Request: fold
Amino acid sequence: MQMAFDGKAQEEHGTLNRLLDRTRFVGIRVFSPSRALIYETWEDIPATLVAAAKSRQHDWPERGQSHRNWIEVSGERLIQVVLPLFGSDGSLAGYVEGVSRLDEESLLAQREQVRAAALTATLSVLLTALLLYPLLLAMLKQSTGLSRRLLDSNLSLMHSLGNAVAKRDSDTDAHNYRVTYYAVALAEAMGLPEKEIADLVVGAFLHDVGKIGIPDRILLKPGKLTAEEFEIMKSHSLLGTEIVAGNRWLAGAAQTIRHHHERFDGAGYPDGLRGEAIPRIARVFAVVDVFDALTSKRPYKEPMTLAEALSIIERDAGQHFDPLVVAVYIKIAPGLYTKAVQVDDAELRQGMRMLLSRYFKTETAPEEGAAFVTTQSVI
Reply:
């Protein structure tokens, strides 16, 4: 992948390209702190050598360390050296990788000596190349800035869309914030990977986005829905999936949007999935979504007590809900609920910003002393 940069960045890339002419390098690659490739340049060497170097797995060294690989392919020898880059504030700015090529004659003459000498020489040259720190750091900063601005735009759109649905449905966006908070706390307690939790954050906030397509006469009906009306209401999960379709950033969220009304016993909708065939984040969200619905005041009902809600959740384990998910949630729900009901909408919104900062590393820094910081220091 190569990023698009302005004229200044292109000049910087030219400097990296010219570096190939003055060193043993046949290739240079620059990576972001998240290990995403943001720039690469190669001499005119066989494609098999480039492919071999790019496909070789390597470690990501820490401060004061380096990583070296000895690559043999098609009778050729390559040396791959990776070093970390750090900004002026001491934070990791990215990684730089240099690849050198050894000729066959030198290897045949004195293979082991040449190997040791070449490794030392390559590392020395690469260390010298780090005099280009300002260039590399500027490139990394620009790439990171572009990515963050795009991420912030996506998150802002998510906020607007989720809040619009909430306003139309119940005239409050507090439900979206609470279920997202509950869902993340539960996912963390279960030890889910960060990527999965990030998908859950967006899916939880947009879980009812399909209700945009449900007529008011059904969506806002104060009484019980008829069988025909309920079938229309059920279509909101598929409508939501259609709304986010084609948006790669929302691909993971689509699992929650589509499947949060599936049941563990297979009696749910829209696909009638059963057990672990239901995506895990949808099984997690199903529990907290029902819990918040039970404990919240709605135009057509009063809120249940914590004990009543947990009794229903526990009763439906194995039928509506994944028993393993319920077992974890029963333990943490009292503390989560107590804190959730003590805060106002502004604190809920601040809490959402903190979750986004944690799982998406947005540009906006959390406010000092915020009440809802993470699910370890919640609301």
Remarks:
- The two ends are 40 Å apart (CA to CA).
